[in-house]
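Folds vary. Our protein:
___
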Amino acid sequence: MKMGGDAAVQYHHNNNQVFDISLDVGPVHPSKCFDDDGRIKRKGNFWTASAHIITAVIGSGVLSLAWAIAQLGWVAGPIMMLLFSFVTYYTSSLLADCYRSGDPVTGKRNYTYMDAVRSNLGGAKVKLCGFIQYLNLFGISIGYTIGASISMMAIKRSNCFHQSGGQNPCHISSNPYMIIFGVTEIILSQIPDFDQLWWLSILAAVMSFTYSSIGLGLGIAQVAENGKFMGSLTGISIGAVTETQKIWRSFQALGDIAFAYAYSIILIEIQDSIRSPPSEAKTMKKATVFSVAVTTVFYMLCGCMGYAAFGDNAPGNLLTGFGFYNPYWLLDIANAAIVVHLVGAYQVYCQPLFAFVEKWVAQQWPDNEFFTKEIKVPIPGFRSYTLNLFRLVWRTTFVVLTTLISMLLPFFNDIVGILGALGFWPLTVFFPVEMYISQKKIPKWSTKWICLQVLSLTCLIISIAAAAGSIAGVVLDLKVYKPFKTSY
């Protein structure tokens, strides 16, 4: 029997099943092995939290930033990136304070984003938050599958093009590469818990720095070769595109930048892996400052150097803009790093969704062995693996579904824009602001309340514009697209 802020009396039946019955008995004094909520002691720290954040933030979104700046120009592009970074940092700090209800050190823990909304806001907002969060996580997994397949194809085409001396156009289908990525994720998705992903996050974070640095280096080399900085103050000009296209593309660019900063969606889950003392909020805020600062520097360098290298012709995926130029092996390394990073990022984003469904199912059918029985599988040289049949079937089905949808809609840039637009305002701004107002009991119509509402309203307008631009892009793509037959 273990007790803590949230649960737990465990009943052991003679079939070795374990059922948790929640009892809100208040926090107890933590021991060497267990935290104050009765769970096994958390081991996360500043560095693992930073690795999770960097893995989530410096995703494939960094590759679309040169294109985004090309739509906005040298003035608006960098300004919007700085604004998004500030808003992300500020609202993430508000959200970090919502991990515990009441006292920031001993208060009841909120294990997920939905739990935090339930504790601070309650009502219909909980279901709305869950719907938006998990829909967004589902969409991100599709975006990452598309991004990884594009990078795998780039390696194949680069080698093919090099071997043929430029004679073979090397058009290939994306489908086999999406399947390869999907099979890899099926295996990795069997890692039971978020806190067991720390090694994958650190590897993915290293990979993100690798390909970002290569993209930056190639951008600098291209600028040196051109002998000047390309681009203009206002971005791609009317004439190269129509006035309507300029507007839609500018809106889509905002969605791409929003997507590049989106990680609030899993912030509470990351924070729940951090040990204390010091308080989890304190560690999380430090990790947020560090991670957002590092990613903003990388974003500014990659986005601006990419735009300086290609000007208005900056590609949707920065690394594809260098085509098949030498050193082609360097591009291969960069694209391989993207694939490894996205393999890890996919897991970081999907684990909260996996856990939510598994917890709900176990609560609905606690007597069903298929949902609740844990089977110990011995692995020579390692500790036993805990197999759950429902987890195996559900997570495999999820990965197969996201892979199939990716094969149907392989529009990387537009999908990224839509995901950024859908998740940015509600999850990065609205809920953190509302929870902060509720938690701190900020009076209505006070100066602080008005400032927070103006911030929220401004971000809502940006999100709507970004969604409209990205949807318009998908509509244009669909006009010339044939399902399962896309080749590059």
In short: The chain has two domains: 1-41, 44-479. Residues 1-28 have pLDDT under 50 and may be disordered.
